[in-house]
Amino acid sequence: MNSKPLRAAVSALALSSALVACSSGGDDGGGANASNCTNAIPKKDLPVVTMWAWYPNMDRVIDNFNQQNNEVQVCWTNVGQGGDAYDKFQTAISAGTGAPDVVMIEMDRIPTFQIQDALVDISDFGYADVKDDFGPGPWKDVSVGNAVYGVPIDGGPLALIYRKDVFAKYGVTPPRTWDEYEQAAQKVKDAGGPLFGDLGANVPALMMALQIQKGATPYTYDPAQPQTIGVKLNDQASKDVLDYWGRLVKKGLIGTQDQFTPEYISGVINGNYATYVSAAWAPGYLTGAGVGQGQDTGKFAVAPLPQWDAANPVQVNWGGSAFSVTRQSKKPELAAKAAYGVYADEKSLTDGWTNQIIFPLNEKALKDPKFIDLKVAFFNGQQANKEVYVPAANAYKGVTYSPFGQYYFDAMTKQLGELIKGSVTGSQAADRVQEDVTKYAKEQGFTVQ
To answer: Which of 7, 328, 352, 426 would bridge 99 by S-S if both were Cys, CB 3.0 to 4.6 A apart?
Structure first.
């Protein structure tokens, strides 16, 4: 079997999702129409490439790039964030027209579009010149095999945010290991304290990262064999992690509120949780949600992510986006210059991290003393980058994602819900996810190893 039926199956499935999502109408944002820009083009004699991106400071970032670049100009449009943008991109892929030259994609979505031949391998378009701008972990996240399908922008090295007032009141210190985390949670509960943390069903990507930290390798995929994929979602490491969190839920040590909801944020503000396991983008998210203000001011700190083996730490990541060149681009080399150059200059990077919009993966920022030594206001002046986030980012090794990541996340969300209800054990949840995703992969034409 060649790869065309497989790509068609994935494309058809994604298109059906896109049509449902877009059925309520709305502007397509202009697609590849370079006359429909959010920004002004200052150098009108230069060729123009189009870009879809959603960060709130993209207007300043694009202006910075266009003012500095004498080879190409970028016409930027925001067609929506995350799923909204993906639906529009999938529709353009299926129609064979309407995609921009460059599209912002979360790293775990790159294989979904790569397998449809919707993205360009940019390794021959200047990769060698910028390779040292990022570490091996980010490059692996945007690669499929040896081919490079995106330029990393930001990431989410994981850490442990905690309430200093709660820790001080109940005499606990930041746990170095997950065993210590459970012990501290029990100590706080026994003393009548708040929940120690939370397991929401709506954070499957976080759960995948925590399983990888334990040693899981969810997927193995070689684009040279596009019909074959390794799926191991119920190995012992994956089961151990789900069993661990299921045990914390059963013992009443942590909550089960969906995260990123008003109810959860209210709980964080009211001190209902002693810790928050999250990524380096969390301070910006929490600040925007109103956490750390008023009576909460100065009560939060951050520590390294607890480890399964303190002597052999493993750093993992949750989230992160990239700029990818689309197959529909008629100017792929110029599009690659834009992908490499946008959000790569010092002014744009500094704007991103000072305003807590991104956690940059570019080495220009990660090695910048101003970034490293930053006293983070949300953490009451703690040098969180130096102490926690930059070391975690530097140690991150990268992940192999699957071409059907969203289906996997949906399957994991369902089983996390069952785990929270007590309907299944963690091991049973892992087995169910394995069965569900394996069946789906075979239906899409894969041979599952």
So the answer is: 328
For the chain, list the domains and their CATH numbers.
3-154+320-383 (3.40.190.10), 158-316+404-448 (3.40.190.10)
Judged by DSSP in three states, 44 sits in coil
Angle, helices 58-68/346-354, rounded to nearest 10 degrees: 170
Distance CA 223, CA 23 (A): 33
Q: Provide the CB-side half-sphere exposure for 138 (13 A, CA).
A: 27
- The two tokens of residue 164 are 């200093």
Helix extents (H) in 39-163: 58-68, 83-95, 110-114, 127-130, 136-141
Nearest residue to 131 (alpha-carbon basis) of 306, 295, 362, 430? 362
Dist CA 63 CA 233 (whole Å): 44
Q: What is the pLDDT of residues 364-407, one digit of tens each?
A: 999 999 999 999 999 999 999 999 999 999 999 999 999 999 99
pLDDT single digits (tens) 57-86: 999 999 999 999 999 999 999 999 888 999
CA–CA gap between residue 144 and residue 399 (Å, rounded): 10
Is 157 in a helix, a strand, or coil?
A: strand
Q: Which of 348, 378, 379 minimizes the C-alpha distance to 362?
A: 348
* Stated pTM of the model: 0.90
Report the distance separating Cα 304 and Cα 66, nearest Å: 38
Quick count: other Cβ atoms within 10 Å of Cβ 202?
16
Q: Give the three-class secondary structure for 131.
A: helix
- Return the structure tokens found at 132: 């040292």
The dihedral formed by the CA atoms of 308, 309, 310 and 311, expressed in degrees to the nearest 10: -160
**Contact yes or no for 31/97 (Cβ under 8 A):** yes
DSSP code of 383? -
pLDDT of 93-149, one tens digit each?
A: 999 999 999 999 999 999 999 999 999 999 999 999 999 999 999 999 999 999 999
- Residue 66: partners with Cβ closer than 8 Å, 6 or more residues away: 39, 41, 42, 43, 73, 74
**Higher-confidence residue: 226 or 300?**
300
Tell me how crowded residue 2 is: count the other CB atoms within 10 A of its CB.
8
φ, ψ dihedrals at 74, nearest 5°? -110, 130
CB 372 within 8 A of CB 290: no
Which pair of tokens denotes residue 300? 């939060």
Rounded to whole angstroms, the Cα distance separating 71 from 69 reads: 6
Q: Are 264 and 258 in contact (CB under 8 A)?
A: yes
Picking from 175, 172, 190, the residue whose alpha carbon sits closest to that of residue 253 is 190
Alpha-carbon distance 321 to 155, whole Å? 7
